[in-house]
Amino acid sequence: MATLGLIAGSGRFPILFAESARRAGHRVVATAFQSITDPALEGAVDGLTWVKLGQLGRIVSALRQGGAGSAVMLGGVPKARFFRDALPDAALLGVVARVAVRGDDSLLRGIAAHLEAEGLPVVDPAPFLADRLAPAGVLGRRSPTPEQWEDARYGLELARAVGRLDLGQTVVVKGRAALAVEAIEGTDACIRRGGALAKGGAVVVKAVKPGQDRRFDLPAVGPDTVAVLAEVGAAVLAVEAGATLVMDREALVRDADRARVAVVGL
Length: 266
Hints:
Helix content is 39%, strand content 19%.
């Protein structure tokens, strides 16, 4: 089987990917960002190199030395931290100089092009995570009201419209009014901002950007997402079915049921 390179950001999805890939017989060598990536990843991979944010050249060297013939990019890197904390090396500066619009997808495609030029084509991680994609319908015991279903469908249209601008993947709506759209602050901050305006009962929708490059930045939700919804008294979490990764589904559904949050796949 192949040796896969994993460029790991935050959250549990890098760990879940590594576990699935190794069960399928692959070796996994990874790079992890200091103070961002979960240290538990070390126990789930065959080799791990810690790097600072911005060290693209070191990432390439570590994966090639580990024997990787391709790479996947999984887990978040907070956009605010990237612009505030990253100390880009020459390789990353070269990518940034070639990117005309510095949105999420543009930068990621630029990084992917650099990796491919270095002999590390970036591949789609979804085949290793197919059993973790959100199904259509209601995931827990609680169903949205008819009005909340309307908000969810409107939110899906809005999220796709925002995605076309390469901003974010998440929107918050209530009464068919857009309360917040995700930008550089990230999903949780978007939910908190919209939830504060809603004063309870908000519908949070997360969707794939139209034309999304499935090699990276697929939308993902997990128990931590539900915790933020519960914090602001939101009523519904709606995600695009068949395209959104659901982390720790049993725990997510359990926590959502306890918080009286409906979780649905659209």
